[in-house]
Amino acid sequence: AGSQLREIFDKINNLLSGKSVLSGGRTVSVTQHPQGLDFVYYKLAEKFVNQGEEEVASHHDAAFPIAVVASGIWELHPRVGDLFLAHLHKKCPYSVPFYPALKEGTSVEEYQRMLGYQVKDSKVEEQDHFLKRMSGLIRLYAAIIQLRWPYGNKQGTHPHGLNYGWRWLAQMLNMEPLADVTATLLLDFLEVCGNALMKQYQVQFWKMMLLIREDYIPRIEAITTSGQMGSLMRFKQFLEKCLQQKEIPLPKGALQSSFWRS
Asked: What are the structural domains, with CATH classification, of the chain?
């Protein structure tokens, strides 16, 4: 409910503002230790990113309540935003976007980690699980860039707004695609913030969609094996439907104004 989200937001904001906050049955304050505030900034940013790969990966709708709180905190406490991006880029290099290259002297295990895979006891996580986590992280990022905390000061601009989303999309299309990963993440991104980008960039946006259909999808197809077709087919169907209807639907789970009255 909107009222619960406000409570969570106020508690985090109070903690970062140096006020005493009740947590786990005791009162805590960042002023209790000289590095208290730095530590809380770091851990909070890490927690937001963890929620992307855990909560949002499992429940896509969760991106919006988490993102609106993260966006509002970022606006009031810019350091959290910087650290959020640092954690996000480390866990998901595709959010930069960046595809790390295998350098000489780097072990396969280390390289898998650089690509965002979890490696435990020399075992690399399954591809499905990896893609699910990356999707959660990209969806959270795509939700943050379009959402503002509704009770904040509306004078300033969004600290990391839609222009960053446009840049991400343009940079993705300037890179050689990766099988499975590229189609999956483009679909995630456009499902979540395609509607907002369409409203903001209008004609330019549709030019970009046509470019993806005419030029970029064939490039993805060229590197995709028959076993990896699922994500590409889903992306193609989504794109065709949007181009036919000249509309990108509002994302499922988007917070309507009625939400804030709950």
From this structure: 1-261 (1.25.40.510)
